[in-house]
């Protein structure tokens, strides 16, 4: 087995101390809400807790409050909580160990969902990408005109061409984060940048703080590098700072991967005071923080964004991103509106927040059917990424990411297919919780 600390091989196995992230009693009470409607017995409590696990509100591997503590907080007998925990243990959602407490698991273990459920023709909504813009033809022509002046150069610029690095640094300057060209490394996209950071700075077996939900390809890259993921659930209101602090305190993660600008897949934006607090909390813990700004240029509703998150750090926060053209905002707005209208008309029971930017809508389904719905949709030539694809832990079976990157008529057809496969209900659109950004 390879020892990640020194790269040497040893016959002695590496052992890790069992540590799980605690779920605060106060937070769990908030999530349970009105669970006692219609009666407050152990079966109803077990059902409510199981729903939170399936929806990702309580992460896999998180430690549940002690039975006595939760009973007192809920105002029920200890026998009620004990019975609920026993029921969840029988179903495979809770494991317990004397002296270590009880923590969340999944029946049969946790398996990540895949993008490649079915490959074939039809409407593919697994990838959030627009067609190539016409302006690329002009860019390539301009690059070809500049080519002769570089032909007498050796061509080895491992950090990227100096003019491009200067241009990227100037972009950060304009956003309020002074940057020198020598601080820039040009890569083949944001995922390539993340992979380089992982290879350079993350020993195998170390903990990495991630959001729940998060970008699937980033989660795949971290898992492939042997990272042990520590998820922090996002709420409708954004980032749960208390939960993040608990993860940092318990796990002391070596790395954190965050997407504070038009988060993938929720579309949320982390406000200025929160990103300042989060970045400084992670830096104090010695965590190397990676900020993914892939969608930062794709604000659709106007208004300034908070300053770059890395600007609040003192040297242990890196920013990665990729090319995005702000000139296409009107096209994206039109397609976002088409998808929202189709959902309101055909699937009124689906809850969603109209995102202020980015390329996707994060929908909440009436029932935990995300994976089964995606499988059924594929039989109708519609390919969608189910909620579990975005989970480091927890299922997110009530969630579905719907990119609005297809043409309006294609989006309408996609919703028509989904409506044929799911029951209808009443519309409940969630207002955007972070409208009016605080810089």
Give a nutshell description of this structure.
The protein is of the alpha/beta class and 439 residues long. Helix content is 35%, strand content 13%. It has 13 helices and 15 strands.
Structure report:
The chain is α/β, with parallel strands linked by helices. It has two domains: 25-104, Winged helix-like DNA-binding domain superfamily/Winged helix DNA-binding domain (Arc Repressor Mutant, subunit A); 120-143 and 187-439, Type I PLP-dependent aspartate aminotransferase-like (Major domain) (Aspartate Aminotransferase, domain 2), CATH 3.40.640. It is built from 13 helices and 15 strands. A six-stranded mixed sheet has the order 6-5-4-7-8-9, with helices on both faces. β10 and β11 (360-364) form a beta hairpin. α7 packs parallel to α8 (216-224). The model is unreliable at 1-20 and 425-439 (pLDDT under 50).
Summarize this structure as a short list of keywords or feature phrases.
single chain, 439 residues, alpha/beta, Arc Repressor Mutant, subunit A, 2 domains, six-stranded mixed sheet, globular, disordered C terminus
């Amino acid at each position: 087995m390879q020892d990640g600390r020194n790269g040497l091989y040893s016959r002695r196995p590496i052992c890790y101390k069992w540590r799980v992230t605690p779920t605060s009693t106060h937070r769990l009470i908030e999530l349970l809400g009105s669970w006692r409607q219609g009666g407050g017995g152990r079966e109803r409590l077990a059902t409510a807790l199981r729903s939170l696990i399936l929806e990702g509100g309580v992460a896999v591997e998180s430690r549940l409050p002690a039975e006595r503590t939760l009973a007192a907080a809920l105002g029920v007998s200890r026998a009620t909580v004990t019975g609920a925990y026993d029921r969840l243990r029988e179903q495979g959602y809770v494991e317990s160990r004397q002296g270590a407490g009880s923590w969340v698991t999944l029946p049969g273990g946790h398996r990540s969902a895949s993008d490649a459920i079915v490959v074939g023709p039809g409407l593919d909504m697994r990838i959030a990408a627009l067609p190539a813009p016409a302006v690329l033809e002009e860019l390539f022509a301009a690059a070809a005109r500049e080519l002769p002046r570089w032909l007498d150069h050796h061509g080895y610029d491992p950090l990227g061409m100096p003019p491009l690095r200067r241009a990227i640094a100037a972009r950060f300057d304009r956003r309020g984060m002074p940057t020198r060209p020598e601080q820039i490394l040009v890569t083949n996209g944001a995922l390539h940048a993340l992979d380089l950071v992982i290879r350079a700075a993350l020993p195998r077996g170390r903990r990495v703080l991630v959001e729940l939900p998060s970008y699937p390809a980033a989660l795949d890259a971290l898992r492939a590098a042997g990272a042990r993921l520590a998820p922090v659930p996002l709420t409708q209101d954004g980032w749960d700072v208390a939960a993040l602090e608990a993860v940092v305190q318990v796990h002391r993660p070596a790395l954190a991967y965050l997407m504070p600008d038009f988060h993938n897949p929720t579309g949320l934006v982390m406000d200025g005071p929160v990103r300042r607090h989060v970045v400084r909390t992670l830096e104090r813990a010695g965590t190397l923080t990676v900020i993914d700004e892939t969608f930062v240029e794709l604000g659709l509703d106007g208004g300034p964004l908070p300053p770059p998150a890395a600007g609040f750090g003192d040297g242990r926060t890196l920013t990665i991103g990729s090319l995005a053209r702000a000139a296409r905002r009107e096209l994206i707005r039109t397609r976002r509106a088409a998808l929202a209208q189709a959902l309101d008309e055909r699937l009124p029971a689906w809850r969603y927040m109209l995102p202020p930017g980015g390329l996707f809508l994060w929908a909440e389904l009436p029932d935990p059917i995300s994976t089964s719905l995606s499988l059924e949709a594929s039989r109708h030539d519609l390919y969608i990424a189910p909620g579990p694809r975005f989970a480091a832990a927890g299922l997110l079976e009530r969630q579905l990411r719907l990119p609005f990157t297809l043409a309006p008529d294609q989006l309408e057809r996609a919703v028509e297919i989904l409506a044929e496969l799911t029951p209808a209900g009443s519309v409940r659109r969630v207002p955007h919780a972070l409208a009016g950004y605080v810089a």
